[in-house]
Design goal:
The complex is a heterodimer of chains A (268) and B (289). Chain A has 268 residues and is mostly helical. Helix content of chain A is 67%, strand content 3%. Chain A folds into 2 domains: 151 residues, no CATH class; 82 residues, no CATH class. Chain A has a two-stranded antiparallel sheet with strand order 1-2. In chain A, helix 2 packs parallel to helix 11, helix 3 runs antiparallel to helix 11 and helix 8 packs across helix 10. A 6-stranded mixed β-sheet of chain B has the order 6-7-8-3-9-10, with helices on both faces. In chain B, strands 2-1-4-5 form a 4-stranded antiparallel β-sheet, with helices on one face. Chain B folds into 2 domains: 243 residues, Rossmann fold (3-Layer(aba) Sandwich); 44 residues, no CATH class. In chain B, 40% of the residues are buried. Chain B has 289 residues and is α/β, with parallel strands linked by helices. Chain B starts with a strand and ends with a helix. The chains are: A mainly alpha (268), B alpha/beta (289). Chains A and B meet through helix 8 and helix 10 of A and helix 2 and helix 3 of B.
Chain lengths: 268, 289
Amino acid sequence: MALNDITLGQYYPGDSAVHRLDPRVKILLLIALIVAIFLAGNLLAYVPVILFLGLVSSLSKVPVKMMLKGLKPLRFILILTFLLNLFFLQGETPLLNLGFAVITKEALITAVHYSLRLVLLVLASSLLTLTTPPITLTDGLERLLSPLRAIHFPAHEMAMMMSIALRFIPTLLEETDKIMKAQTARGADFESGNLIARAKAMVPLLVPLFVSSFRRAGDLAMAMEARCYHGGEGRTRLRVLKCGKLDYIACGCVALLIAAVVLCGKVY
Amino acid sequence: MQVTLEHVTHTYQPNSPFQSTAIRDVNMEIRPGEFLALIGHTGSGKSTLAQHINGLLKPTAGKVLLDGQDIHEKGFDKKALRQKVGLVFQYPEHQLFEETVAKDVAFGPKNLGLSEKEIAERVEEALARVGLGQPGIAQKSPFELSGGQMRRAAMAGVLAMRPEILVLDEPAAGLDPQSREDMLQLIAGLHRQGTTVVMISHSMDDVARFATRAVVMEHGTIAMEGAPEEIFRHAERLEQMGLDVPSVCRLGLKLRAMGVDCPPDIFREEQAERALLALWKGGAAHGAE
C-alpha cells in the first residue's frame, strides 16, 4: 500500500561529526548558511558554498540519493524558475535567437543563478533534517526560543506539542494503514471512483481515526499527569545540550565560508 | 475452496534503510473445513501471513492461489475474494465508524452491492449470531456499546459478508474472561457449521481446545506444522521460541519430572481429568493394599 512509501521526518541514522553537532548550533549554522547563499552575488561565489555542502554531506555519510530526494517535489518550481528567467529577462548579449524569444547571456546567468540558489537552499536544509532526529531538533528549537518566554511566548509548550505530534505520526500512520486494511477487507474501495466517491470513501477511515486519536490524546494526558507533568516550569532535562569543540569548529568553518562567499563576490 | 501459499515472501519498505522481511518463503495451504491455529512469538510474521490470505498484502515474491488461481493476476476479482475470505483484525472494534450498529454491520454487504432486503436480512442474522440480537441494540451508536459488545459488533460486520474462510487475528485479546469464552464459543460454533477458520492466537490452551491443525511461525518461516497434539509434544522447542504449551501439558510434564507415572500427550482438559482420575484411583487402590 502507498502508506509504506512515506519516509518519516527524513532522519538518516548515523554517528558522524555532523550528526553529533549540537542541534542549536546546527539550526543557527543553517540560518548562517542561508544568509551566505543569499549573499552570493555571482556564480563564482557559489563555488565555496557547493564545496562546503559537498564536504559536509560526505562527512555525514548520508547517501547522495537521499540528499537529492528532497529536490524531487521542487522539480517543477525549479524548471519554471529557470525557464521564466531564461526567456523573459532582457539582456544585452544575445546568445540564441529562437524567433519568439531571444536568449541573452545575462538571462542565462540569472536563470542559473536563481535555480542554483533554490537547489542549494533545499540541500542545506535537508542536511539539517537528515542528520538530526526530529525530537532533538525540537529540543534545540525550544532552547533557542526560550529567551522569548520573557514576552510570554510558550516555547516549552510549543516544543512539547511538536514532539508529541512527531512522536505520533508513525503511530497514526500505522493506525491508518490498519483501519484502511480492515475496511478494505470489508469490501471498501479507496482507490477508484470520482472525487466525490473518493471523499465519501474516506469516512470509514477518518471516523475511526479521529476516535482513536481522541482516545490516545486522553490517555496520554492522563499518563503525563500521573507522572506529575505540569509544564516546563522548573523542569530539568535528561540530555543537557552542551556545545563542545566540534561545535566551535563548525562555527569557524561557516564563518570562513561566509568570508569566502563575500570575497568571491567582490573579486569577480 | 482452498487457499494455497507458494513460496510467499513479504518485505516491508523494500530498498529503504527501514527494509524488513516479515515472512520468508512460506509454503502452506488452508484446507476446507479445518480450524487452523497460527502460533508464534510477537514479530514472527503471523499477522503479515494472515493479510496475504485475502490479498490485502501482495507478496514480494511467491504466489497466493485460490483454487489454483493466482489472486494477484490481472482481472482477478478481489471483491469476490474478500467476500469469501473474511478477515477480522486485532481489536476490530477500532474500525467501527457508522452512526448505528446496524449501519456499520451493513457496510460490508453494501460494498458487495447486495439489495436492501438482502442487506437487512444479513445484518439481522449476523447480529443474532454474535449475540447482539436484542431489540434496540441495532439502532444504538456503536460507540455506546461496551468493549465486548463492540468487538462482537465488529465481528458481525465481517460475518455479514458470509465468508467461507474466516481469518481472525487474536480475536480474544483484551477481553474479560466471560467475553473471551463467548467469543471462542462463537468461533467454534461457526467452525462446526462449516466455516473454515484460521485463528492467530497466543493462548495455547485455546489452540489445544479448538484447533484441528496448527502452524508455528518463527522469524518469518514455518517452524512446525501439524496436529496440536504433535506440536505440543515438542515443549522444549516451543519454549526456545518463546512460546508455551497448554497449562495441562505443563502439569503433565511437571508430574512426570516428579516421577509420577502420568501418561504423555495430555493437552486437553478432558484428557488430563481422565488421567488424573486414573492416577488417583490407582494411588488409592495402592494405598488400600
